[in-house]
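EI: anyone free to look at a 67-residue chain?
SC: sure, send it
EI:
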Amino acid sequence: MHGVQVTYTVKDGRVEENEALVRAVYDKLREMAEPGIMYGTFKKDDGRTFVHLAFFESPEHQQRFGS
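SC: here you go
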């Protein structure tokens, strides 16, 4: 299993836009229905910092997610 963490802070006024992009990621994951991919997104207390955690059973699962 391979894990990836991405943390970033969006500018003021861009939170809603970023949340829409995050929802699109989850839409893609639902469409894929790939059991070898686990994904979580968290918003920190400042309301602008997002943390994405992704775990992949294999490099092939990660490749499918990235395409």
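EI: Helices lie at 15-32, 59-66.
SC: 👍
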